[in-house]
Each structure stands twice: as structure tokens, then as C-alpha cells.
Write a structure and sequence with these properties.
The structure is a single chain. The chain is mostly helical and 297 residues long. The chain has one domain. It is 66% helix and 0% strand. Helix 5 packs parallel to helix 12. The model has no long low-confidence stretch (mean pLDDT 92).
């Protein structure tokens, strides 16, 4: 009986969150905004609230009294909170380093990407050329600073409450934890499809645009979703996932500062490329083995 009720609530949640998200992003197909434009920033930011809105509405409509992992559990699980804060930055640096080792001609220590952004905004700025040690120092600062950008954690809450707090435990009861975690990530990636069409995570020219970008967004969301789901299920709290999600968003563009124009966004150097996410992929192998041993909540 519980699983039948869960099925209906899952259906209501998915129907509502996809409907609201598509209604929000539909005007983009008429506006045709530039990549990284203010319109895209507003669209992407507003998009993040709909999972929480959908979860709260469905919970109210269906008289769902189940919890949504809103406990803090900081004292008991502080190592996982620390992991949530700093692991995303470390794996972003790992993936970017691997990318530049594989494609050394893409490394640009003269910060041409930063200069081009300044010029596009009408500013003339003298940008210094870095050494490798200076780049490593900036990377270390970025890893430490990433969890301190609190606004990103707040925005991440909008997605995490819906996908990991509300939907994930229901999928776990129906499918078991491993399949539920994978499906949760796939659905999370699919809902980003309209934004990907206009350059979210996958900018510039790349083979198979936008369909290849949409497929890669599903892969990226699944890979990141395994990490966020692991944190949520282990701590029984969505806050570590919010921290991890927010920390990643804070510095996910950092590798581009050192990258030549014309990079293939499907590969990297950002964590949304298959090479850029290599560290997360290795981590997920370990996490999935651990999750298989955990009982359904």
C-alpha cells in the first residue's frame, strides 16, 4: 500500500516539476538569449526553486506526512559535511588538471578567457600571465573559498529539497537504493534540457549540439547526483548535499580561466565534461558500493 501511495506522489511530483520548469524556460525559445547573458542567469536561478515548490505542493495536496531529510545532524556527521564542502573543489581541480595533461595546447596561463570576458563587457584590463605555481595557488584558494559562497548553498537547497529530500526516499522504497539513486540523477539531468539548449554548462560549438549536450547533462547530473544522494542518505539530511552542490556551482567555471577558446565542452575542462568529471566518476564507484550495503529508508 505504501509503495502504491509513493507511486502516485512520485507521478504528481514529476509531472508538476517538469511542467513548471518547462513553462519557466519556454520563453527562451522566443527570446533566443546569448550564452552567459543576464537573461540566462535569471532563467537558471529561477529554475532552481521549482523542485522545492513542487515537493511542498504535492506534499500538501496528498497529505504526505513523511519527512524530507531536514534534520541537521552536524555533530554526528561532521566528516561528511567537510567532505561536502571541499571534495567538489578538489575533484574539479583534479578533472581540470587531467584535461590539460591530455590537451596541453588548451592551457592558457595568459588568462585569455578572463581578458575576453572583460573586453566583452567594455572593460580594458591588464591581465597578468601566471606561472604554474601561481595557477596551483589560485586553485587552492578556490577550493577553500568554494564552500564560503553561502548564496550558492541557498540556491542549491531549492533543487536538493525536491530531488534528494522528497523524491529520492520514495524511489528508494520502490526500486532499492542503487537504482533509485541513478534514476533520480537521470531525471534531474533531463529537466535541464531547455537550459542546455541555450548554453547552460555546454557553451560554444561542440559536435551534436544541443542533443549531445543534453545527453552529457544527464550524465553529469547522474554523476553529481550519486555524490549528493550518498551524502543525503548517509546523514539523513539534505544540507550536506546543498553544501556540495553549492560549492561545485561556486567554482565550476574556474577551469575556463586557464583554457584557450575553442575547447570542446563535452570533454572539459569544467566538471560537466567527461574528462573534467573524472574525479567524481572514480568517487562514485566507491560510493555506489557503499550504498548497495545500506538498507532502504
Amino acid at each position: 500500500m505504501k509503495r502504491d501511495v509513493d507511486s502516485r506522489r512520485i507521478g504528481w511530483y514529476l509531472g508538476l516539476v517538469f511542467a513548471l520548469s518547462n513553462l519557466w524556460t519556454f520563453p527562451l525559445f522566443f527570446l533566443q538569449p546569448e550564452e552567459n547573458s543576464p537573461i540566462m542567469m535569471v532563467a537558471g536561478t529561477g529554475f532552481m526553486v521549482f523542485p522545492t515548490v513542487s515537493a511542498v505542493l504535492v506534499k500538501h495536496w496528498t497529505k504526505d506526512d513523511s519527512g524530507m531529510f531536514l534534520g541537521l545532524s552536524l555533530k554526528k556527521h561532521w566528516p561528511l559535511y567537510a567532505m561536502a564542502a571541499f571534495a567538489p573543489g578538489l575533484f574539479i581541480v583534479f578533472g581540470a588538471t587531467l584535461y590539460f595533461l591530455l590537451f596541453p595546447k588548451q592551457l592558457d596561463l595568459s588568462l585569455g578567457y578572463v581578458r575576453s570576458l572583460m573586453e566583452a563587457s567594455g572593460q580594458t584590463v591588464v591581465v597578468p600571465t601566471l606561472t604554474l605555481s601561481m595557477a596551483a595557488g589560485f586553485a587552492a584558494v578556490a577550493v577553500i573559498a568554494a564552500p564560503l559562497v553561502i548564496v550558492n548553498h541557498v540556491l542549491a537547497f531549492g533543487e536538493e529539497l525536491g530531488w534528494r529530500g522528497y523524491l529520492l526516499p520514495k524511489l528508494c522504497r520502490k526500486l532499492g537504493i542503487p537504482r533509485a539513486v541513478i534514476l533520480d540523477g537521470v531525471l534531474w539531468g533531463l529537466i535541464h534540457a531547455p537550459l542546455v539548449c541555450f548554453g547552460l554548462n555546454y557553451t560554444g560549438s561542440y559536435p551534436g549540439r544541443p542533443w549531445a549536450g543534453i545527453l552529457m547533462m544527464v550524465v553529469f547530473a547522474t554523476v553529481l547526483g550519486i555524490f549528493c544522494s550518498f551524502l543525503t542518505l548517509k546523514t539523513k539530511s539534505i544540507y550536506p548535499a546543498c553544501i556540495a552542490h553549492g560549492a561545485l556551482n561556486a567554482i565550476r567555471e574556474f577551469p575556463l580561466f586557464l583554457c584557450q577558446p575553442g575547447y570542446n565542452a563535452l570533454l572539459g575542462p569544467k566538471p560537466s565534461g567527461i574528462v573534467g568529471m573524472a574525479g567524481f566518476l572514480l568517487l562514485d564507484i566507491v560510493l555506489m558500493r557503499m550504498l548497495r550495503k545500506q538498507g532502504v529508508q
